[in-house]
Amino acid sequence: MGFLEPELPVVDMAEWSKGTRGERIRPMARHWAEVGFGTPVALHLFYVGKVCLYVLGGWLIVLGTKGIDGFTNVGDWWAEPIVFQKVVLYTLLFEVVGLGCGFGPLNNRFFPPLGSILYWLRPKTIRLPPWPERIPLTKGTTRSVVDVALYAGLLVMTAIALLSNGTGPVPELDTTVGLLPVWQIVAVLALLAVVGVRDKVIFLAARGEVYATLTVTFLFTGVDVIVAAKVVFLVIWMGAALSKLNRHFPFVISTMMSNSPVFRRKSLKRKFFENFPDDLRPGRLSRVFAHGATAVELLVPLVLFFSHGGLVTTIAAVVMVGFHLGILTAVPMGVPLEWNVFMIFGVLVLFVAHADLGLADLRNPALVAVLFVVIAGIVIAGNLFPRKISFLPGMRYYAGNWDTTMWCVTPSAAEKIGRGIVAIASMPQAQLERFYGKDRAQIPMYMGYAFRAMNTHGRALFTLVNRAMPTGHEADYTITDGERICSTAVGWNFGDGHLHNEQLIAAMQERCHFEPGEVRVVLLDAQPINKGTQAYRLVDAATGEFERGVVYVADMVTRQPWADDVPVHVRDNAPA
């Protein structure tokens, strides 16, 4: 790959364009297998710089705290409990502004590189309330001045907490600096809760399942703050590991390692596949990585939690730091880079600096038990009922098992979206054409198809796309990943089909007034952990759902990325 230019597949455009969709995906999938997306070195360095700025920003904020002094005297203050509190809130702010997950070109955000704050401080943009029929005063999908004020209030209140000093000595935590005032913690949580019931996108963008849950632990007192935070980390790791006990995860590993800037040799990348270039199912190396990573994430956190110091704790901490460095250096799609840096910091502060603190030291064990039951219960429910619970609170991180959608959009519908949606970013194809040029834009677009197809659900999506489009009119549509539509319409996306399901379709229909057939959407639910199927729905934006059924995971994992022949089992037909 070049320093400034991407390394894209070289094809005979005239011949390549004549092929079927599967035939055009095939060379893209092979390119992905031994090169990845072909990201320029300069772009990877850009993200390295962003991570460094994230660390520097947190460093400077912490140094603004009374009693914490010395830019280079990190060893004197890094383990202070208030430092951990401020890093949590700082990362929450970093994410909810839009600078973290989903930022920039590696998430297909070119102009501008973020949405988030640019949308959520602007009235009349789309908002998606999670329970509009159940929670009063949350109906509707249009952002009001009140919504803007609430979001701004969250930003301001979080900033106030970051600039505050500690409340004084806490002997049981061996600190003279103290903790953040409880009223500030309550205010941040209250504002995030109110904003979240008005717009689930903002809550998820704040990575509420991590940072809001950790902020809840700051309501506890003394030792309970640290131990409760350890419990949250334990649930995050073990919940994510349990969700990877599936047939999808090896596909994630092979796809992610192919795109890793660390694994540069093509010969090594090919080993992640069964038999490159003809069989691009995950090979033995992918399975070893997948099962090994799952075992580490499931078992090592237990050692960290219960070892309470010494050599065993040190070894476990080194393993978990290495685990997150492995994800970080792979630069996965969606770029959750700062989250991995934060998790490394949490390992060191909670489990190394405060290794001696455990369940036996709790002053109010009942409260910590309630917290554990709630967050672990959400993880379990998220795996049993993935259509009901986002993969983020369900802790199904990078398990390969997500709700996904694929949108089939006609040129007339794209024009209506441009006119009818209050947005900052243009439609995905327009962004690609602006960045790559109109002729070359087809290549990165099909590279995006290849990425989706390298995952198990991609085989089903491209099969179902054929059923969604009216027979004989396939050429009239541009197929766009729902994540890209979501990025344009609501300002943030991170692989979560809950953000571009029927609720977004209805919100866009209300504004754009699509004609029947102009927009057809494939919605594919994640696999419940106790079933071998994934449910799907086919929806016309104007007339509603017209087909539903299931596909079997066993059929998806045996096919190649360019396949579109997964057996479909129709369960119920709705009128077209």
Protein described:
The chain is 52% helix and 8% strand. The chain contains 24 helices and 8 strands. It is globular and about 75 Å long. A hairpin with a 3-residue loop joins strand 6 and strand 7. The chain has 576 residues and is of the alpha+beta class. It has a 6-stranded antiparallel beta sheet. It has a two-stranded antiparallel ribbon with strand order 1-2.
> How large is the radius of gyration?
24 Å
Termini gap: 47 Å
For the largest beta sheet, what order do the strands appear in spatially? 4-3-5-6-7-8
Overall pLDDT level: 95
Q: Tell me about the biggest sheet?
A: 6 strands, antiparallel
Protein structure class: alpha+beta
Estimate the strand proportion.
Answer: 5-15%
Helix segment count? Answer: 24
Question: How many strand segments?
Answer: 8
Structural shape: globular
Q: Helix proportion of residues, in percent?
A: 40-55%
Low-confidence segments, ≥5 residues, pLDDT <50? Answer: none
What would you say about this model in short?
This protein is of the alpha+beta class and 576 residues long.
Helix and strand arrangement:
Elements: H1 13-16, H2 21-35, H3 41-63, H4 74-77, H5 81-97, H6 117-120, H7 145-162, H8 182-198, H9 200-205, H10 211-217, H11 223-243, H12 249-258, H13 266-270, E1 273-275, E2 279-282, H14 284-307, H15 310-330, H16 337-353, H17 365-384, E3 404-409, H18 411-420, H19 428-436, H20 442-454, H21 456-468, E4 478-481, H22 482-490, H23 502-512, E5 519-524, E6 533-540, E7 544-552, H24 553-556, E8 569-572
Primary descriptors:
single chain, 576 residues, alpha+beta, two-stranded antiparallel ribbon, 24 helices, globular
